[in-house]
Amino acid sequence: MRLFQPVPKAVDTMHLRDFNDSDADYRALVELENQTWPDTPTTVEAQREMVAARPDIRWDQRVCEIDGSVAGLGSCGAAFWLGEPGAFHVYVVVNHAHRRQGIGSHIFRDLLKRMPPADMQTLNSGCREDQIGGLKFLQAHGFVETGRDADAELDLAEFDIVRLAETCKDPSPARFRPLAPLTEDCPDWMERFRDLAYRIQAEAVAPEILEKPSAQQFAEEHLNARDFNPYLCWIARDGTDWIGLTELRSMADDDTAVEAFRTGVDPARRGRGVATALKLHAFASAKAQGYAKVVAHGDPDSSIGHIHRRLGFQFQPAWIGMQKPLQPPNP
Ligand SMILES: CC(C)(COP(=O)(O)OP(=O)(O)OC[C@H]1O[C@@H](n2cnc3c(N)ncnc32)[C@H](O)[C@@H]1OP(=O)(O)O)[C@@H](O)C(=O)NCCC(=O)NCCS
């Protein structure tokens, strides 16, 4: 006689099916999403709009039911927003009450089984750093981190350039000015600015090769851009050399904020506090112009991320990009 009945695993009682276009499925999706991401709530309408806006690509969505109610959902399809051929994306979410019972893994394997392996060159996913379950789940399925991205914000009311400057390195002999007066005083400002901006951008996109824009192209795309402000673009100079720049740009959807757009310093002049000083000047200018905050996006562990932290930016939890190394298809 058996004394103990084995506890049935969730995988034994669950049923997988396709997501359908019904309001009931959309409501279940929204409920799961809002339970998991309460700080960025979504609605049925927003989810339907996202689907309507999606290009005509392969996109599989699966629903896991237990006793007739939705316990988890997953989707997998071409990651068109990455612009890389063969890039796929997978996402799984499971109701809190049903986690750690193998449901997420079941949905994940089912989704992958359905994907055409020859079309898939990379399998991408991601998770916010505060979703420990999501991170561990992806790691357990062989995903490795590819990068981090976080939103950060500096409250300019709290920003005190004098106090901060005392705690930062003395960047001399570098000198700092906004681009606006340099366009009056420096006859070859355009060529110098174009060259510096190009070098910084070329380093940022390497190993991709970036062609230097013509003077006309640079004027059209950079100087005449609607959000470009030569008073919020600061230049560092050493003697007659232009050695660094930082740019803040206005934002289309928030006229109280500027965005940290681009910063770079000549490799030979790094480590001397030039980027920090550029940012201090630019933030002080933004404050003087009446802006309330500076927003930034990027890797919180990069050198710019460290500078921002030091200058008082508050960071949101980072989004961690992850990728699963795939077996090459059999020849
Ligand atoms: C990620 C998620 C879908 C996992 O669902 P799940 O049904 O709990 O996952 P499984 O039970 O199949 O877990 C498989 C393995 O992942 C790891 N794992 C999952 N959650 C974990 C947690 N909270 N802590 C540590 N490890 C965890 C474990 O190795 C686990 O195996 P084990 O239970 O035998 O130790 C669920 O946590 C979730 O909905 N998170 C929010 C959405 C999200 O972040 N998705 C990730 C991006 S795809």
Could you describe the 3D structure shown?
- By secondary structure, this protein is α+β, with helices and mostly antiparallel strands.
- It has two domains: 10-120, 3-Layer(aba) Sandwich (Aminopeptidase); 151-318, Gcn5-related N-acetyltransferase (GNAT) (Aminopeptidase), CATH 3.40.630.30.
- 34% of the residues lie in helices and 29% in strands.
- The chain has eleven helices and 13 strands.
- The protein has helices spanning 10-13, 23-36, 44-53, 103-114, 132-140, 161-167, 179-185, 189-205, 215-223, 274-288, 303-310; strands at 14-18, 59-66, 69-78, 87-94, 122-128, 144-155, 175-178, 233-238, 241-251, 254-265, 293-298, 314-315, 319-324.
- Strands 1, 2, 3, 4, 5, 6, 7, 8, 9, 10, 11, 12 and 13 form a 13-stranded mixed beta sheet that branches.
- Strand 10 (254-265), helix 10 and strand 11 (293-298) form a beta-alpha-beta unit.
- It is elongated and about 75 Å long.
- Residues 1-8 have low confidence and may be disordered.
- The protein binds coenzyme A.
Summarize the topology.
Layout (H helix, E strand, L loop, with lengths): L9 H4 E5 L4 H14 L7 H10 L5 E8 L2 E10 L8 E8 L8 H12 L7 E7 L3 H9 L3 E12 L5 H7 L7 E4 H7 L3 H17 L9 H9 L9 E6 L2 E11 L2 E12 L8 H15 L4 E6 L4 H8 L3 E2 L3 E6 L7
Parallel strand pairs: 4-5, 10-11
Antiparallel strand pairs: 1-2, 2-3, 3-4, 5-13, 6-11, 6-12, 6-13, 7-8, 8-9, 9-10
The structure holds coenzyme A (COA).
